[in-house]
Design goal:
Length: 699
């Protein structure tokens, strides 16, 4: 226990301390006192800004904590012309703070004495032990010691030299200040301590004989010491030892109660308001276990270029809205439920389709292109496992996942609807679909997107784990299937392509096993290594990044040929300056026929490099510059072809720039554009530009 680290400047100051809790015995004694004190209030200062938790930390965390002006510290200065003026001038520099309001959890109420016996508030005369005002200060030249937030400190802030307030940590009451080895006659509070020890006998020190007057204390320590002194004062009053509890002290107490009546009333009103708000929040909270958050993206998109001899598409306005429910039943687990609606069109109704970058054919409504936006679903208006349609702005479940720990470093998850990004930490700073990069190309390494890994609508059902091997190393892995809920496969709608093109069952048909090893060797460096093995019942990559995705993983081979894909990739982000980061990735996909009916294989590669800037021109505003190569066939063998008929094979490139302007904590606007050179690996296509003005609302 810190043993009442209260060097209150005299018996007067000490009685001021007791003002909040003196028993009714003191009230009777006060009634007999005549107003003979010559003490007068020389100055009263009211300052604000000391933040004192009044209800609970949970309320503050929920964004409903009271602002700094709701906690007012009242500072007063006393002056006296009697023989003990020196001690009372020290007390004149003490401050009164309206602290020690009980938390909502403890519901404790401390009472305060007033001249009309009406107030039940707490007044505490606190002081700054860090200041050393001169004992010879006069009324006209007053040193105002700084008031630390002594009474708002939490018990978990105790340092190694802060013993527990246990009774075992203090010794017996001292009978002389000389017993405290670190209290010297030259100390500014020496007279006050001497008065408290010799007149009231309620000052205790630490077992090593020190007082530690410069230390802050906890609420528990204050309460323990205050209780000891109250008991002692009660004994003195009961014994009618009025020569110890002086009339002047009680008169000063009365004067202080009158002087601070307004502040006490204000404090009481504020406490009532906070408690009322807390009760209202508890009564109207959404759920005790679930938090709701959401995101709404509205974007204007304009594009030009694309296939030759085509006009530019119209400027369009598209949206995506998500509502997410995060539920915890134990405080450590997490159930994520996500609802989504969007207005994107698929196939020829998309920007890529309107630009002529989507190949024609029976699967064009499932085809991708390199003109995809960051928040555009991989297969708009289509539920791929069943080939059923999804209407524009229809509301549907896009995510359902349950994560739970099984040890200090291992967590498991099971998800009927999920994406690989739910399991794998993002490495690039461009990954946020509503706040950062505006294209699908820039956000993630393509290996993460394999087999619909980031489809934009939770294509797969998955189960996996996340294992923290150390503070700097994480291993995450999962197995997923897009057709887990389908009991049997539908008849063919094309040769070798059924009405459920990815097959049926969790372990039958298409599936993927993927893993990511994440290293954080330093605060400025993040590294991710990816591997994925995929099996598809049709000729598909499933990344949603380029036209040679569906029906062209093995170019020149029929769409119904099943394939095996082994893909590897690496991603690195280096924050080489406080507000600048370099990010890059590289990937390779090795595709082979798995039917035995043909002999075909291909290799796809892709890479990206970019610079990310934080707090550009203003705090909260980010920008990015990105350049790279979309997926490109670098090798083809057997029946596979480097290019499809009529193509002029050429290496594609992607250049992108954006600037996110933070309007408020909940609104951001991101203008940006990306340029495609040799889009879809075909030099016949014109250089294509896609401009985006994206507005994102979060709540």
């Amino acid at each position: 226990m810190k043993a009442l680290q209260l060097a209150f400047a005299s018996g007067v100051s000490f009685v001021c301390l007791l003002a909040g809790s003196l028993p009714l015995k003191a009230m009777a004694a006060l009634a007999k006192v005549t107003d003979s004190s010559t003490i007068r209030v020389a100055e009263k200062l009211v300052t604000s800004g000391d933040r004192i938790p009044t209800i609970s930390q949970a309320l503050a965390q929920s964004g409903n904590s009271q602002s700094s002006q709701s906690n007012t510290c009242n500072t007063f200065v006393l002056s006296n012309h009697e023989s003990d003026c020196q001690a009372q001038m020290v007390a004149a520099k003490n401050r009164v703070t309206t602290a020690m309001i009980a938390d909502a959890h403890s519901k404790q109420n401390l009472t305060v004495l007033s001249q009309e016996q009406q107030s039940r508030d707490l007044v505490i005369a606190a002081f700054s032990s860090s200041s050393s005002p001169s004992a010879s200060s006069t009324r006209d030249s007053i040193s105002r010691p700084k008031l630390p937030q002594l009474l708002s400190q939490q018990s978990n802030t105790q340092s190694a030299d802060s013993p527990s307030p246990s009774s075992n940590s203090v010794k017996e009451q001292v009978t002389s200040v000389s017993q405290l080895s670190d209290v010297q006659p030259t100390d500014w509070a020496f007279v006050a301590l001497q008065s408290l020890v010799e007149r009231y006998g309620c000052i205790a020190g630490y077992p090593n004989g020190t007082y530690r007057g410069n230390r802050a204390m906890t609420r528990y320590e204050f309460a323990a010491g205050l209780n000891s002194c109250l008991n002692r004062v009660n004994e003195l009053i009961a014994a009618a030892t009025t020569e110890l509890v002086r009339k002047e002290d009680l008169a000063t107490l009365q004067r202080l109660q009158q002087e601070f009546a307004t502040e006490l009333a204000t404090l009481r009103g504020r406490v009532d308001v906070v408690e009322a708000r807390n009760a209202e929040l508890e009564a109207n909270q959404f759920s005790t276990t679930t938090k709701l958050n959401g995101e709404a993206i509205v974007s204007v998109v304009s594009a030009g270029g694309g296939a030759p001899n085509r006009g530019n598409p119209n400027t369009i306005l598209v949206d995506r809205v998500r509502l997410n429910l995060s539920t915890s039943f134990t405080g450590k687990d997490l159930l994520i439920t996500g609802l989504q609606a969007y207005s994107f069109g698929g196939g020829t109704n998309s920007i890529g389709g309107a630009l002529g970058l989507v190949p024609s054919g029976p699967l064009q409504n499932q085809s991708a292109s390199s003109a995809r936006l960051s928040f555009e679903p991989q297969f708009p208006e289509l539920d791929v496992p069943t080939l059923s349609s999804i209407g524009s702005n229809d509301i549907y479940l896009y995510k359902l996942a349950y994560i739970f720990p099984v040890g200090k470093s291992l967590s498991l998850f099971v998800a009927p609807r999920a994406e690989s990004t739910d399991a794998f930490p993002a490495i690039t700073p461009f990954a946020n679909e509503g706040q950062e990069a505006i294209s699908r190309f820039a956000g993630y390494n393509p290996v993460v997107r394999i087999s619909g890994g980031t489809s934009g609508y939770g294509l797969a059902s998955a189960a996996g784990f996340s294992w923290n091997l150390s503070d700097k190393v994480n291993l995450a892995a999962f197995y997923a299937s897009a057709n887990a809920a389908i009991p049997s496969q539908a008849p063919d709608i094309l040769p070798g392509v059924s009405g459920t093109p990815l097959g049926a069952g969790f372990f039958s048909g298409s599936g993927i096993a993927a893993a990511q090893l994440t290293f954080k060797p330093s605060k400025s460096l993040d590294i991710g290594l990816n591997y994925a093995h995929s099996y598809h019942e049709i000729n598909i990559l499933g990344t949603g990044l380029v036209a040679k995705d569906i029906g062209a993983a093995l170019p020149g081979v029929a769409a119904g040929i099943p394939v095996n894909i082994n893909s590897v990739g690496g991603t690195l982000t280096w924050r080489f300056a406080p507000k600048v980061a370099f990010s890059t990735y590289g990937s390779a996909f090795f595709v082979e026929d798995s039917s035995g009916r043909v002999d075909a294989s291909t290799t796809f590669t892709s890479w990206m490099a970019g610079l990310h800037f934080t707090d550009v021109f203003k705090e909260g505003n980010n920008a990015g510059i990105i350049f790279g190569q979309p997926l490109f066939v670098t090798d083809a063998a057997g029946d596979a072809r480097f290019k499809l008929p009529g193509e002029r094979r050429s290496t594609p490139y992607h250049l992108e720039a954006y600037y996110r302007f933070k309007v408020s904590d909940n609104i951001s606007i991101t203008p940006g554009a990306f340029v495609l050179f040799n889009p879809e690996s075909d030099s016949r296509n014109d250089t294509t530009t896609v401009g985006v003005l994206r507005t994102t609302f979060t709540f």
